[in-house]
Amino acid sequence: MHARLKLTGQVLAVALVGALFALLVWKLATQEEGAARKLERGEIVQAPSFRLDRLDRAGHISLADYRGRPVVVNFWGSWCDPCKQEAPVLEETWQRYRSRGLVVLGVDFHDLKGAAKRFARDNDMSYPLAYDGPGNTISKYGVEAAPETFFVAPDGTLVCERLLGGVHIERNRGRYDQCVQELLSA
Known about the structure:
Layout: H1 2-30, H2 35-40, E1 51-54, E2 60-62, E3 71-76, H3 81-97, E4 103-109, H4 113-122, E5 129-132, H5 138-141, E6 148-152, E7 158-164, H6 170-185
Parallel strand pairs: 3-4, 4-5
Antiparallel strand pairs: 1-2, 1-5, 3-6, 6-7
């Protein structure tokens, strides 16, 4: 009896692993290609639209709200240490260029809303903030990890390339500043 029960458990475990593998294959096969990959190939890409809850105040926020303005879209999470380190650079960009129409838009993902609000408050993030707790928006953009930053021209197209990792780090900082200037001159 014990051997039969053990064999049944093993068969169920193998079946579960097989089902999970099939689900993974299906997900990879049907997943939408993110905008980042198209941008890397040099294609002209419209920034994927989204409408999300706001973190910084009540209501919703949409990328369409900023059509006609240059936008820096930064994907972050309260659980992300480099996100904390780059927050002052994003805030400084917002303060310096918002009078020229530039918007810095932070999109928090895979996070708890309370933790995200606390993170934004603790890091003095005064620019517009969106909440994408389940991470539905990141697949449209092709976000692989936090933080990642995209640049949206006033016509809604993505310009420059996405920046992987914090905008504060040496390998990204110069390119970040160049992309901000490109947005301002668009």
